[in-house]
Every structure is written in structure tokens, then in C-alpha cells.
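OP here, attaching both records as promised.
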Amino acid sequence: MKSRRGAAHGNWIRWLKFNAVGAAGICVQLAVLVSLRAGLHMHYLLATALAVEATVLHNFFWHERFTWADRKSTNWGARLLKFNLATGLFSIAGNLFFTAVLVRAGLGYLPANAVSIALCSLINFFLNDRLVFVPPERRN
């Protein structure tokens, strides 16, 4: 059993790892968004949804192997599905909502999307930590 201080330190380290994966994910999301928007002339909201899903898959891979590597799962497919349903759906809905609102407010689609990513980050950490990458002692 970890002490409170040890648990807080562990949470801080996990938060830093989460943000490192997230920073790489931002690069993936913005690159896919620009590619779909500028390269294929896709509508910015459809391009945003596809870019978020590409990032969700990227982030799952790295969270599984880096951020929550200590919380192994015997059912990788079920965890990916849970990740997509929890954080993936929230990320897509949140990014679409915030991006649309910010674009309507006059911000360009790219900075609007970057702000949307930041707004969704805290909730995504909580969803991942409590629902997707559940510690062995809390699993049923």
C-alpha cells in the first residue's frame, strides 16, 4: 500500500507521462487535420473528427505502454473499445463542439482546434485513470 505522499508522487509522474503522450498526440491531430483540410479540402468538422480518432488510436497505444504500463490488461481489445467509447467519444464530441464554437467566434480552425484539445485534456486524464486503465485492485 502506497503512502499518500507516494501516491501523490505517482499521480504527478503519471500526469506528466499523460501530457507527454498528449503533446505527441497534438502533433498527430494537427498534422492529420491540416492534411485532410488543406490536402483533401475536407470540411473542417469532418476533418476534426477523423483527426481526433487518429489521435485516440495513437494515444491509446502510448498510454497502454507508457502512461499506464503498470496497469496491465489481459483483454487489450476490450480496453481499446472502452478507451474509444470513453475518451474517444468525449474527445470527438468535445473537439467538435469547442472547435465549432471558437470558429464561429472568429478564431481560425487550427488555433480553435488547439484550444479545444487543451480544454478536453483534464477530463480525459480522469476518464482514463478511473475508467479505462483501472488498477488491478479496483477491477471486478
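Record two, same layout:
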Amino acid sequence: MSLMRHTLGLVLLSSSIVLLNAQEEPSAMVDSARQALSTGMASVAAYKLEHLDFAKLDPAKEVEARFLLAQAFMKLGKARQAIEVLTPVGDRLPQEAMLCLADALMLEGQFKDALPWYEKVATQGSGIVAEQGALGRSRAMMALGHETTALGQLGTFAETHPSPMILLELARIYLDLQDAHAALRNLAAIKGATGREVAEKGYLVGRAAFLAGDYVAAVEALESIKAVPSDLAVPVALALASALDAGGNRDSAETVLESFIEKYPSHPNLPEVFAKLDLIYDSQESPSSVELRRWVDDQTSSTRRALAMYYLARNEGRLDRFDRSDALYREFLTTFPTYPLATSARKELAGALLHQGEPASALAVLGDYSGPDMDFMRGLALAANEDYTAASAAFLSAAQGEGEEHALYNAALCSMLAGTEDDKNAALQEFESKFGKGGLNQGLAMTEALRMASLKLPAAREALEKLAAGGSAPAQLALAEWDYQQLNFPAARLALKKVSSTSIAEAERTAALGVFLEDTGDAGSDAKVIASAQKFLREYPSSPLRAEVTMKLGEMLYRKGDYAGARIVFTEVSTAFADSPLAEKAQFLAAESAARSLTPNGREDAVELYENVARQDGPLALRARLAQALLLNALQRPTEALGVFDKILASNPEVELRNSVLIEKGDTYNSMGASDPANYGKAIEAWKSLADSTDDPHWRNQALAKMGSACEKMGNSDAALACFYDAITPREGQETEYFWFYRAGFDAARLLESQKLYTEAIAVYSKMAALDGPRAEEARARLNKIRLENFLWEE
């Protein structure tokens, strides 16, 4: 009876709500919906308006009601319904409603349809609505692949609407286009940012500095963010960790991520943080597992515990603690069987068991789980168990996924190993129909052999031997590669000898491959590669592969530190193979070798060799010129170096090279100033040419700071101060640059203090202290010291 009363009560309550809405006047319903929406009750607003008869409203009220309903739909994640509500009155929509419609179209992927609405709002609207329209227009254009147009339009809009919102968007676009300098330029132009905008600016400055390779500045920018919005918490932590790691401070990077995990144990994006932390662990020889173990033992957060257990298993595996790793994977699969990483854990455990030579255990772990990855791993395990028929079926099932080519190849191979004739091998026929007839692809055969070899599967060698039994040189080469990967060099060399003895046509290629296979990347292999290369060159003096092998010989001698020998070999490539694409590179490397050799005339010869490369006017010509000039400076021949710098400048080089040359030219004259002060003026002239021609603060500030130093050496302190001041006064829209800004600022303040111009010095220190950069604290300390010592207090 009570259940019936309860059910009846729900029915009556539902009916009463419908009745109340039905009794409410349409106009009043719109007003109450507006109130609900303003208090964050989007579902209530939608409920009130969704079944409203818009025909009963006057035109203005209808538009208002539709807009309110569309807003409610958008908050509820129903963009398609918002489009349906607004489209019938599109020609009567106010700017804010047009923006809502455009946003809904964007969310539905209808970028082309969204664009004209954004255009109207951007060009006809005002204030923040116009800015949002411009942002939307830019994003629609980007989505349609018109990046240049998007940038141009938004850049033009920013000239009259330089709001933080617009400049932040420009910075984001430039970062997506990998243009760090342009991103920083727009970020530096932001004025009046507040709240979230300040935090986002700091985050984007950090990203841009990282992209530019200035990891110190990236760390400073990211650490300067005082209040991180919740949606930026993970991006900021990941960016800071990446900057610290790239800057060589791996322990601090690890601490940042571990602290985040400790502070936010149930954050929805915690998997990203763990994945990044795992990459850092993976880059260490002996990664610590202390924190992971502690989190595994901590029952307060199932999310963190699951992730910690999974990554602890990976960590133990990379430390070759297979018993611990296997046990953790098993515990993970038992404790968190439905967690998103369960499939990956099962696959990794099965793979680990295969590595340990336990295919039966791997099959038990895989059980009845299906899917391309599981079926592929099952095929490997069955092949390791020599059950080739079942393995072929598993690989055929795995061929339904992305790795179709590899899976089909394995299926065909296992079917062959099971004794199936080619004309009855369905997997082989399907492979050849999709990836080419005439036998299995040689490159794929090598790839799959290496894959099976990496899992220590006997079937890999057996398969290759069977394919090579008919005298197939490609199969023999694949077998040699397999042995090479297993560091079984005698077997690899034996396989290569078999290739040359069974296929004369492959002899040279096989011997050349042998040269490169000898290079394991460690110093111990250098002598073997050199000997192998020399042998090849003796045995195949007319080989078309001679240039590549000779080049390899030169590179190995260079790597070994035998610069004299490397120079001889590189010279041979550049002369004997003058028409080869390798010739210019060889000649350049011959010059590099000569420059580094200890022979009496080595560096002098390098000057001439660089000259020969430069005269050819090839891709390396200007690079050779610059190397030549720097070498001439090292040889204390600055006048000749200056001549080379002028040649580079006369060739109209690309901007970055021109800037580098102007700096080096000024430095060269500056080094000659002690013997002839007139050279300081020439140095200033070179740097001024750079400062006047660029808005890039890195180059401009560097040139100005050096100009100031030279002026000071000439005794012209006023001119020096003018240069320093220009360096610490960025142009409008110029991005922030720290190194030369602070160098010039402290030099200016020092000069002013020496002249007892303390008020002016305080102004300079205040300017540096106001910029939240790496030496701001130092500037503040000096500022306070001057005030205390000279009784100069602020009013």
C-alpha cells in the first residue's frame, strides 16, 4: 500500500508541474525562465521554455524566449537543439544571440555555416561581444584551414581592439603554428589583464619560452602564476615539468608532478599527469618507485591508487624486476578490472610473460578477451607455443584493426609454417591482394622478424630460415638483421656471407649493409665499422654504394676523434664523387675536421676548405662563410674575418643569419677597440644597423646593450645611458626579453650610481623590479639599499 501511495504521489507531483506550466502565461514563463537561467538552473529554464508555443508571443518576446532556450541548451551541452531553436528567427537575432548560434554551429562542426554569423557580430557588434565574434571568426577560419586569413583578420582587429582576450588568442594561434617569437610579442602587448587572463598569459608565456628553447624563462613564467584556474591546473603542471626536465632539472620536474598528484588525488585529468611522470621515470637509469608505492598503499583515492599501481608495474618492469611487475599487473587486473588501463595492463603483462619465455602464461592472461590488440598478442603467444594454425586465426582476427598489414603478414607466415600451400593460404592471398603480389614484402618481413625476435620467439628465426631456404637474398638480409638486433654479430656476419654466396646481385648491398649493421652507437663498435667500411671499399672499388660507405667511414673517424683521417676520407668523397649529393656535405665536414685537427696547418687549411664550399654557392655556402669567419677570429685575424662578414651581408642572407653576422661583426670590431678606439665606433655602427632594422627584442636589446658598453668605453656616458635606456624600454607590442633587458638595466643603474644620480638609478631599478622576471628580486634589493643609504623614500 505504501509503495502504491508513493508511486501515486510521484504521478500527482509530475502532473501538478505540467499543470502549473500550462497555467503560466507565456510571457511570465519567459521571465521565470530568465530568472532560472541567471541562477544557474539551465535545466529548469529549458524545461519551462522547451514546449512553449512561441506563436503566442509577440515577435520581440519570441526572439528573447528562443535565445534564452538556446542558452539553456548550450549550458546543457545540446548544441544541435540550440541551432534548431535559433535558426527560424536568424534574421531577427540580436548580436548576442547571433554569437550563441555561431558557437552552437561550431560545436556541431558546421564551421562554414558559423563563419557568416561570427562575421556579422565582429563587424557590426561592439565591446566584448564584437571581440567574441572576432575570436569565433578566427577559430572558424582556422578550422576551415585558412590560417593566414585568420591571423590577418584577428591581427587587424587587434589594432583597434587590443584587449587581453584578443591578444591571448593571437598568442595561442602563433603557438599552434610554432612561432614562439610572435606569440611572445602579442603577450607582451597585453595591458590590464585581470584574474584568469593573468594566469593564462603566464601559461602562454611559459609555453612560448619553452618553444623558443629558453627553459629558464619558461620555468619563471609558469612559477609566477599565483592563482591557477582549475582548468589550467594540469596544463600548467605539465608545462612546468616539461620546462624543468628540458632544462636538466629532472628531479624538480618529478617533484612538480608528484606534488600535483599528492594534492589532487582524484583530478579528472590525473592520467595525463601520471603519463608525463612515467616518461620522466623512463628517462632515468634507476627511477625511484617510492611515491608510487606509497600511493598504491593509500586507500583514500581509488583513481590515484589505480594509476599508481599500473605505473609502478611499468617501473618495476623497466628495472627488470619481472616478478614484482607481473604481480602488480595481476593485482591491478583483479582490483580494477574495468579501469580504462585494464586492457593495456593485460597486454603489457602478456608481453612481459612472452619476454620471459612463458607463452602459456601469456595465453592464460589474455583469456577470452578480444579486440585487435588482444588478438595480435594472442597470435604471438600461440606462435611461440608453435600452434601455428591457431596463431594464424588469431592474427586474421587482429587484422580488423589498424595494424592490418602486420597482422595479415603474421597470419600468412604462421599458415605457411603450419604447412599450408600457398594456393590454399587465405591470409597470404589477402595480403598480396591488398599489399602487393609476388611474395611477402621484404621490408615487412624484416620488420616482423625483428618484432618476433624482440619477444624472444623461436618462430621468428624459424620463419626467416624457411623463407630464406630457397636462396632468397631479402630473407637472408632479414635474418642477418634479426641476429644483429640480438647482438649476435657472428651469426649476422654468417647470414650476410650466405647472402653474398647465394646471390651475386645482392653482394654489394649486403656488404654495405654489413658496414652499417656494425654501428651499435657505442665507442666499442667504431673500430669494427671502420674496418668493415675499409674492407668494403677494397673489395668493391667501383660499387655505386661507394660514396655512402666512404661517407660513413669519414663520420666514424670524426666521431672517434681522428680528425686528420676523417679529413682525408671526406676529401675523397668530395673529389671522387663530385656529382654526388654528398659532395658538398663532405667538403664542409672536411673543413670541420681540419679545424679540429691538431696538425700545425689544420686550422689554416680549414679556412681554405670553408672558402671552397662557399664559392660553390650551395646550401651550405653561407654556413661555411660564418664558420670561416669565426675561425679567422680564433686565429687572431680579425681583419680577414670582417671581410668574410661583409661578403655574407652582401649576399642578402636570411634574417637570422644576418642578425648573427651583425652581432659577430660588432664583436670583432669591439675586440679591436683596445688597440684603436676608433674601432668602437665601427662596432657601434654594426650593432646600430641591427637595432634599427628589427623589432625582435632578443636581437635589438643585445645590440643596444653592446652599443651602450662600447659608448662607455669611449667615455661617452650620455650616449651609453641612451642605449641602455632604449634596451629597457620595449617598443609597443614588443614581447618580453629578459637577458639583455636586465644586462642593460643594471649597466645603466651602475653608471648612474657612479655619477651619484640616485633618483635616476632608482627609476631604472624600479623599471626592472616591475617586470616579473628572473632578476626582479635583485633589482628590488638594490632599489631598497639605495633608498636606505641615501634616505630617498617614496611619498
